[in-house]
Amino acid sequence: MNNNNQEEQNLSKANFVRNIIIDDVKNNKHNGKVVLRFPPEPNGYLHIGHAKSICLNFGLAKEFHGSCNLRFDDTNPTKEEEEYIESIKNDVQWLGFGLGEKIFYTSDYFEQLYSFALQLVKAGKAYVEDLTAEEIREYRGTLKEPGKESPYRNRSIEENIDLLEKMKNGDFEDGKHVLRAKIDMASPNINLRDPVLYRIQKAHHHRTGDRWSIYPMYDFAHGQSDSIEGITHSVCTLEFEDHRPLYDWFIEQLGIHHPQQIEFARLNLSYTVMSKRKLLQLVEEKYVEGWDDPRMPTISGLRRRGFTPASIKDFMERIGVAKADSSVDVALLEHCLREDLNKNAPRVMAVLRPLRVVITNYPENQVEELEAENNPEDETAGTRTMPFSKVIYIEQDDFMEDAPKKFFRLSQGREVRLKHAYYVTCNEVIKNENGDIIELQCSYDPATKGGWSDDGRKVKGTLHWVSEQHALKATVRLYDRLFTKANMNKGDFKEFINPDSVEVLENCLLEPSLSTAKAEINYQFLRQGYFCVDSKDSKEGALIFNRSVSLKDSWANQAKK
RNA sequence: UGGGGCGUCGACAAGCGGUAAGUCACAUGGUUUUGGUCCAUGUAUUCGAGGGUUCGAAUCCUUCCGCCCCAGCCA
């Protein structure tokens, strides 16, 4: 690879946010500085939609040698928890982004934010409201009709200062007053109709304790926090587009640094939901086993499922960044995982639904250690050995009576290859009294050791297998999409929950090398998919594997026809 | 129907006046000790619709249609 190619590799794909930054850097706009931020509220776990924002912001900061602050937007103590802060830090780092020298918190600016509020009051640009929440709503007007001004709008500055200080000192009960900006009750942009700046909330804050009885609203805190941190580009999602005039108003009234806000479309993924509210509902109503359930689109869920940081970053690179509402096909995410794992995951053999096979002409107590390659896509991966003996198991799906010609697997009288072992031919099918197939009697060809024949004989099928006396028992969880409908914009999303989103197979048999398998290391179970040890439930001697994603299966497609 | 956005292949998405990139999905062939991977090929005479400007328009103008967001003391 030459230098040019390498350069291109390090550059992310073009998108309009990146283009704006390129221009600004070129024009020396913020002295050429690029300071970004990722500002989650610690009120839930991060999901893959947040990962888009993380990759964008941290990625751009890295590319332009700038910085990206992780800032917790902790302005609502009633909804935020320490647990979420820890999980968020953890998720960002797992994705591969450093947290930097310090973590930022909006709550660190409470003092500063309060003096900004006081500044507005003193300038006659903000006032203390006596109206109730309901009255405020009525006064606000509607989308089509202008609002009307509050009777308390023109209090004296002195009275406003006095009242605000009393609010701050805890002299009033929750809801008694609120501080509002004095802008324009007739504005077509509802955000400008005297928005609330502070509310009284005598709640314990996870960081500031009981110091405050008033807390700033998001709209009053967010832009100013960006400003305080010297953020050059405030990248956020589309729904904040019409808040921008409000943020600009604050910045202008206060006379402080003006970050440039840029809005992009949030990520939607087919067959899942992506709002914290809905995800919380799935957790609380026990549709899943927690925020990190492997079926959840949370970062912790994807991680437990077996997704890698590289696959998620690759996905983000491929979907791009734009302003059109869109829903990305989950197949693309799966493709990214397969691509990563195809190159990197060691291959092993595991029989999920075992069918007993006796090799009638194989010596009774013989065991052979056969060599098997670990990864045909990676020469450096080396080889291992697998024990072979008289009784083995194959996949139930790999045998069929009266099989069609296109079925390249085992059937009466047909010969197949056991991967890395021998050619075997099925001679007899043993059934129980119900007619279920319980065992196959096969014969092997000793001349085909390793799975080769030099007589030019063609064998179409290759099966995976495990030796009975050496096999490890394990539980395998096959995950499928959580919902049966690709897009659930309308109606109740819970109607579309997939009742078969997980299938638990209890009696799977694995090759012995898997006894040392560890969580977050992916394996390809040959011919089936990529699997990893479950980080929570798997125990030594009681292994549990999760299917991260299946292999593509063109036979399944063909069989359906 | 107040304001703010958005409409390019089934799904994403480049393109920004010079004659429709790429990726996924799909289909067909080839290779293959994974019906995996890999390789090759195919897939929008057309850019929400109409009208206009221009030698030339997805790109400019205009009218219309459709979708999303906003009336929390949530973020």
Summarize the model shown.
With 561 residues, the chain is of the alpha/beta class.
Task: Describe what this molecule looks like in 3D.
There is one protein chain. Helices cover 27% and strands 22% of the residues. By secondary structure, the protein is of the alpha/beta class. It has 3 domains: 11-264, Rossmann fold (3-Layer(aba) Sandwich), CATH 3.40.50; 276-346 and 474-560, Ribosomal Protein L25, Chain P (Beta Barrel), CATH 2.40.240.10; 350-464, Ribosomal Protein L25, Chain P. Residues 1-10 have low confidence and may be disordered. The structure holds one RNA strand of 75 nucleotides.
Beta-strand residue fraction: 15-25%
CATH architecture of the largest domain: 3-Layer(aba) Sandwich
List how many beta strands DSSP finds: 25
Which residues form runs of ≥5 with pLDDT under 50?
A: 1-10
Quick one: CATH superfamily of the largest domain?
Answer: HUPs
CATH topology descriptor of the largest domain: Rossmann fold
Q: Report the sheet with the most strands, covering strand number, pairing sense and barrel closure.
A: 7 strands, mixed
Write down the domain tally.
3
**What is the C-level CATH assignment of the largest domain?**
Alpha Beta
Radius of gyration: 31 Å
Structure annotation, total helices:
14
> Oligomeric status of the shown chains?
single chain
pLDDT averaged over residues: 95
Beginning-to-end CA distance, first to last residue? 44 Å
Gross morphology is elongated
Helix/strand/pairing class, anyone? alpha/beta
Helix fraction, binned, reads 25-40%
